[in-house]
Design goal:
single chain; 301 residues; alpha/beta; Nucleotidyltransferase, domain 5; 2 domains; five-stranded mixed sheet; 14 helices
């Protein structure tokens, strides 16, 4: 490896676009730029399987800014990935072409299995804390992935369902609450029942904003502080009690909470999905992390 090599990773998520730039030498990795911007690419996709033109424009503007930053830093090694929004849209080629024409970026649409693999790899520093089979979950904007893994960092089984913090309420509007909740419950139950022989009590890693926000509320932080959240551990009981506390708050209370504010609708949807996970899978504690696809990508490049 060349000394002080700069590498970039871009994640075109269903809700946020994220850029991570690191400088790597032989023995260390230094973050030199880290940026995330909500573009809501998947919003309203449930209704007609097409991207909203306004959200496409926001995403293209964000990616153009990212490419400009990559060029300024003279980075040649990068990977740009897209997840559930581009897996679900009826014509992803149109969007990829617009990205290329506007920003010059090449985009890989990755499968849910690849998304789960990268997410697990990004959490490798926590795997040594788990001596048995573990569970990783990622509640995203447009999908939720659950993975059973060995501490050696190899994943055993993974599943993905196309419900996340943005499109959950959209699908409830279309199909009704009872049908949507039954589908999520049946999906997670089927996956767990096929793999429940792996363990009777799991330690989990929660790699998603639902868990980081929940953790900040549990700690009663005066503001959202990533350094207080990364690697924090919550027991099953603490998670359920905190969910119950949040669900009792009024809309005004949620909006005025320093760690929730305008994210309250997304958080409430994430908590609905989280409750299905922890009620179906016997998780005894959850390690919370901000790490995700970008961290794994820069390690692999």
């Amino acid at each position: 490896m060349k000394k002080n090599k700069k590498i970039a990773a871009i994640d075109i998520g269903s809700h946020n676009c994220r850029l991570l730039v690191v400088e790597k030498s032989a023995d260390k990795k230094k973050i030199i730029f880290n940026h995330s911007k909500p573009t809501n690419l998947i919003k309203n996709l449930s209704f007609n399987n097409e991207f909203n033109s306004e959200n496409i424009l926001k995403t293209l503007n964000c990616l153009t800014f990212f490419k400009r930053k990559i060029d300024e830093l003279k980075i040649t090694d990068y990977r740009c990935v897209a997840t559930e929004a581009c897996r679900a849209v009826i014509n992803p080629e149109f969007f990829l072409k617009k990205v290329k024409e506007t920003s010059g970026l090449d985009v890989d649409i990755i499968s849910s299995d690849e998304e789960a693999r990268l997410c697990l790899k990004s959490c490798k520093i926590y795997l040594k804390k788990i001596k048995q089979i573990g569970v990783l979950f990622d509640i995203g904007g447009g999908s939720t992935e659950i993975t059973f893994f060995e501490p050696s960092s190899s994943y055993l089984k993974t599943t993905s369902i196309s419900y996340g913090v943005i499109n959950l309420q959209e699908k409830i509007q279309i199909y009704g609450e009872d049908l949507v909740k039954k589908k999520i419950s049946d999906h997670f139950s089927y996956f767990y029942n096929r793999n429940k022989s792996l363990s009777d009590k799991f330690i989990s890693i929660g790699s998603c904003s639902t868990m980081t926000t929940l953790c900040s509320v549990f700690q009663n932080l005066p503001f959202y502080n990533p350094s207080k959240i990364e690697g924090f551990e919550m027991s099953r009981e603490q998670v359920i009690n905190t969910i119950n506390y949040i669900n009792k708050l009024s809309v005004n209370d949620l909006k005025s909470h320093p760690c929730i504010k305008d994210k309250y609708k997304l958080l409430k949807s994430g908590l609905e999905i989280l409750l299905f996970i922890i009620k179906i899978i016997p998780i005894k504690k959850i390690i919370i992390t901000h790490k995700g696809l970008r961290d794994a990508i820069v390690d692999e490049l």
